[in-house]
Membrane-bound transcription factor site-2 protease
Amino acid sequence: MIPVSLLVFVMAGWCAVYLADTLLRSSVTHRISYESWLASRGLMLSPFHVRWQTTMFNRLFAYCARINPRALYMWFNSGLVFGIAAMLGSVVLLIRTLQQTIAQMTTDNPRIGDPQTLQVVVPGVNLPTSQLAYFFIALLLSGVIHELGHAVAALREQVRVNGFGMFVFVVYPGAFVDLFTTHLNLISPAQQLRIFCAGVWHNFVLCLAALAFLFLLPLLLFPMYATGAGALVTEVVQSSAADGPRGLSVGDIVTGLEDCPVRGVEDWTSCLSHLAHTPQTGYCVPVASLQPSWAHGRVGHLNIKRGHSYRAATGAPIGQVSTHVGAFKRLDGTMDCCSNNSLTDLCFSYIKSQGRSSREREYACMPVRKMVTGTRVCHTDDDCAAHSHTASICVTPSLENQTRFIRVTHPPNTHMLFVGYPPHLQYAVSLTNFVPRFGFLHLDLPVFLETFCKYVVSLSGALAVVNSVPCFALDGQWMLNALLEATLASVVIDRQKRELIGFFLLLAGSALLAANVALGLWMVTAR
């Protein structure tokens, strides 16, 4: 659901603007001066919509339209080809997205299925409030570049630009250009197509530029930031499993999760996924250090607390492991032989030979930090025998089915020990691939550049797709009309028939887009 506080804030803001506008327009003494002030600054106000228009950028557009005419001709012809292809591709993509949405609506688990390429974005719902600045700036930039393409293409085709402007609708910013309609109707359909396709073409180019910048970012920041040395912690969620004296801190560099090396954020994510979907790792410990808590003793029912980060190493040394009356069976069938709320001890299981043919699983409660510090990981006793000169055995933490024990390496600090569901550790910290080479450099600069580029790629690409759809009031409407005039004029002689064909195509495209938006909005806000 949409957060009530956000909805109240937006509604209160627009109500205040609309009330002030109504009072000033109804005032006998201030009405004329107020309307003159709005007109002189190109401002227009209406419910949930504010618009600003100016001619101050017209000279800049004209200058850009005169740069290398031959190169611009090739540039906008490329945009024409892309626009036609994008119009067809956007319809296919919307049909595919609609199928995915309907499939998710009819299943009990909406997370099952392929991720959608296009999603409705609602600030505060599926867009974190901490990311709003990135979203709105990237959206505005994408809109400005889109309209810049229209303006330069129009001036190159001798169509006058009346002005450029920006607007805010509810909370979404945007931009527009005002073209002289009479000039636009006098030029050929091919010229019109170059103008109408220029917007989505420039969005596509901006998307590619942002992708290239994102790909080259490690090289561009190489003199100031190093990569490949680990994942740098930039934020730790308070009271999470990664927080605390023996947890992770901002500025720590994570280099490993158990025996899985971490060279960057991608490795961090893949290692956690691997650990979550593979059996629990074991550890090689000397046989002499084990004293069992007999599994065939009294059995009770306990639930281990999830999400612990073991921060202390108090308790008996390895050679003096405390014993218990019995191992307790949890509700999921796994065994526990330690106190339910212990933050220092953990129940380990191992296989003990009882003669040549008999092998029995036993359990021992051990001080976890001392037990796993400096030990080799294993899966069977043979792994320990191959790398140890003393009699060693492979012990495995006895945990609930989806719970894992993970050693997080972040030198020069001691290991952070985590017990819980691996995705919880992923959500507890924010990391980056970029490690500052100098102390005065800010940790968040690469994060800001990465995040902003990702938003530009996403939003500029989305604008290119949505505006290409043959839909009323979008660029796709004018692109389709110009394309039909350029291709069907010699086949369908009657202009009214061509317009009727265009109308039904636009109606179908509008219905397709409306269905995607309506169902996508319902999926985001109601589920």
